[in-house]
Design a protein that fits this description.
135 residues, mainly alpha, Cytochrome Bc1 Complex, Chain D, domain 2, 2 domains, binds heme C
Amino acid sequence: MRTLSLLLMLLVLVLVACGNQADAGNASIPDPADIGNPDTGRQIFSEWHGEAPACSTCHTIDGTASVGPSLKGITSRAGRQVDGMDAVAYLHESIVDPNAFVADGKAQSVMYKHFGEVLTEEQIRDLIAYLLMLE
Ligand code: HEC
């Protein structure tokens, strides 16, 4: 009997530990509002900025592939694409330096390369906040 209750206690401890781990995983995806303004980000996503094309010319958010991958569900894969890079860092890099990691497996990204110069840091953060809402 004693062994059984000990085993049960152990099981509970293991389950609790696993539960905490799952929480820690979710915590790595921050609240979009802490990063920027998702509503402004949504606008930036579908507007041209001078010669820089709108993100929506190449990306859908409904799962259909276009010139680039659909950004539906980007939040769940963003933190896993590159070792040691969390979702926000990965999204930031994807926007300002598309060739650092080429998501569609091609040698060179055809994504427009100069968003880092065309958009302000605040606009990039608003975009990231918007992308984080696309579960
Ligand atoms: C000219 C077409 C084009 C435009 C415009 C464009 N992208 Fe991309 N994007 C791509 C392609 C192609 C890829 C896949 C190759 C790569 O990773 O760069 C990509 C990849 C990405 C990824 C990584 C996707 C993944 O599955 O990991 C993100 C995030 C992204 N783009 C966001 C944006 C945002 C935000 C904008 C607007 C500021 C934008 N893109 C504008 C073509 C484009």
